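job 3f2a | input accepted
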Amino acid sequence: MYSDKGDAIVDAIVDAIVDTINIVIDINQFFSKVIYNTGDTTSMYKRNSIMYVPVFRKITISCEVFGGFCINIDIAEFNTTQLIIDKVLNELLKTLEASNMQNLIETLRTLWRQYHIHDYDLGYMLTVDKEYHICNHGCNM
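job 3f2a | predicted structure (141 res):
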């Protein structure tokens, strides 16, 4: 059948690769059907052929200068609480820049590294739907 054992091995490898590709295609089609059959396009959408469910949380700044600034963000997009903090502070910075609040912009830049979220890790924040606070006061971190 084969003139050389090497040809048989190459054919077996090619067959295995083709089978793997077909399995990946089947999985991709399955997840596409699951996503599109939910009918809920506001809470789920297709990202890189897998189901992605956003996790929106209200994040509020708690400090003397910027206290009360809050936004709803999809925290599932972040890998650390520090990235969430940076996102919220960047949104605050954009708001201050749009209003040309130069003194407050400088204050924010000075205080930036003091902001933190304590008592909660990212895993907790992803699973418990509540408002979370970012503070910069001298609390026990």
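job 3f2a | The beta strands are 45-47, 50-52, 56-62, 70-74, 132-135.
job 3f2a | closed
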